[in-house]
Design a protein that fits this description.
- With 166 residues, the protein is α+β, with helices and mostly antiparallel strands.
- The protein has three helices and ten strands.
- β2, α1 and β3 form a beta-alpha-beta unit.
- α1 (25-47) packs parallel to α2 (80-90).
- The longest helix has 23 residues, at 25-47.
């Protein structure tokens, strides 16, 4: 994680650990990380009225945030425990900024490199933005930029672009 203050908004750019598998030690570490992040957000809010947490959370907030929930049964990214970690973050007073899709009906942000997942839109929405209501109220647009995911050396993630009014 890295944080900076820009234009009066405290921004945290985050990578939440993947968790690997539910029975792996990294999964428990991920759950602890999410809890610690909620505590950090609460502390930051004591100093910064305008706060946004954004990045790769490695959690799909709802079943609709994956292309087929049945394909994810028994794996990380969709468990009740991980989603409870997101609820802890929201309980600090932050709200989720949901991007609009530029193509298809869902704004996925991650597609596996294997099995033509990207062209078949077999993705997940795991890159998330949480913001204070004061920041969210300034948002004029938010979208998942699928075009940035294309190319020979592209990431397996698409960025979430958030536009703010001055």
């Amino acid at each position: 994680a890295i944080a900076a203050t820009c234009g009066g908004i405290r921004l945290w750019s985050l990578y939440i650990p993947n968790g690997r598998t539910i029975d792996h030690d990294h999964y428990q570490y991920k759950l602890q990380w999410l809890k610690a992040l909620s505590e950090t957000a609460r502390a930051e809010l004591a100093t910064y009225a305008d706060l946004a947490l954004l990045g790769d959370f490695n959690v799909a907030p709802t079943d609709d945030d994956v292309y087929d929930i049945a394909a994810f049964q028994g794996s990380t990214h969709v468990t009740d425990q991980e989603r409870a970690g997101l609820e802890l973050i929201k309980a600090t007073g932050l709200i989720e900024v949901e991007p609009r899709p530029l193509k298809y009906d869902r704004a996925f942000t991650f597609w596996d490199y294997r099995q033509l997942a990207f062209p078949k839109n077999r993705g997940m929405r795991i890159d998330l933005v949480y913001a204070t209501p004061s920041v969210a109220g300034r948002i004029t647009d938010a979208y998942s930029d699928r075009e940035a995911r294309k190319g020979k050396s592209a990431s397996d993630h698409a960025p979430v672009v958030v536009d703010l009014a001055d």
